[in-house]
Amino acid sequence: MKVTREFIEKMPKTDLHVHLDGSLRLSTILDLAQQQGVALPENPKDEKALAKVIRMGAICEDLRDYLKAFDITLSVLQTEESLYRAAFELAEDAAKENVRYMEVRYSPLLHTRNGLSFPVIVEAVAEGLREAKRKYGIMTGQIICGIRHITPESSLRLAELCVAFKHRGVVGFDLAGAEADNPPKDHQAAFDLIRNNNVNLTIHAGEAYGPESIHQAIHMCGAHRIGHGTRLREDGDLLNFVNDHRIPLEVCVTSNVQTRACDSFESHPLPFYMSYGIRCTINTDNRLVTDTTMTEEFWRCVQHYNLGVGDLRKLMIDGFKSSFMPYRKKRTVMAMAVEEFDSLVADFAAMQGAPASEYAPNVAQEIGSQFSRFQSQLPEDPSELLAEKAPKVEKKEAPRAKKKR
């Protein structure tokens, strides 16, 4: 069956790595700026001009250059109303492309310029997400972020906030921000508090810095997932550890190209990770700044890496598996998503006149499919194979022992 953009848009999806302050609508920024009396750089009059100022989708010099756009978005996200609206609209946009579950991450520390308290900020975002669930049925969770280049003490305060709102909409903790010269181990106290309270932990690592950052995130900080992990391939031992322990990667392909974590789509390690067996999830990172959607991310991967329906199915399943939903809920939601996906395949296959059963992966589970083909060539009785290959052994008469005189 041929994969189409329409199929991708209709398939159930997750987005586990998406930043609230990087995913606003252009129209919302302009509207909020006018309401709040916020002067935007270069005074853009319309969405096209604002997109140019933000450099939406443009290739940046590096991650630090990429993060400059957040100065604009954060300038209008300092009220309860704006946080509620941003959260609701993000979930609404995701739901309209059949994202069934999304984890929205942000740092309350960056929304306190007008005096909002941490709990008020979290509640405003939570109410926006709850309203989207009531209207569209999309399931969501919040991930509270510490900031690498701000003090470790501030990360500890945010970790305390995360623990307080556990089971109240918050599903995990993260460390974000400029990666170079800001190792995760500096924020150890925050991670200790998170782990000791049985809270899920993901850390940005291996995006703008090498595999040492990933090593620290896993072995020193106890991360359950890795944000990006683009440079994991540079350390074979660590790569195998991540694979053996099924530590998921939150892959953001377009963002990685935009921040120059990868030179191009063709040089991105995603197809290698998939063929090797790494648990990969596809994510947007920042819908506005990166100018993308979940549909667009999957579609670009199909175009650049020749992903088949089986690959999409595997990536979808890994997305639900890697979520911070409780296990029992996750199992139910994933089963429903798989059933919906397979039904969608049957419908599209029928429209294209292709057999619905023939959608083996092109990239993911490559070793598994090769083994399946090998198994199909084996005889029904394994002893037949042994009989054919076993060498014939000629029996020789044992020499007689000499009698002693």
UniProtKB/TrEMBL annotation:
Keywords: Hydrolase, Metal-binding, Zinc. It holds the Pfam family A_deaminase. Residues 12-334 form the Adenosine deaminase domain. One of its GO terms (biological process) is hypoxanthine salvage. It is an enzyme of class 3 (hydrolase). Residues 386-405 have a biased composition (Basic and acidic residues). Coiled coil: none annotated. Its cofactor is Zn(2+). Its EC number is 3.5.4.4. The keyword GTP-binding does not apply. InterPro entries: A_deaminase_dom (IPR001365), Ado/ade_deaminase (IPR006330), Metal_Hydrolase (IPR032466). One of its GO terms (cellular component) is cytosol. Residues 376-405 are annotated as: Disordered. GO terms for molecular function: adenosine deaminase activity; metal ion binding. Belongs to the metallo-dependent hydrolases superfamily. Adenosine and AMP deaminases family. This is adenosine deaminase. The gene is add.
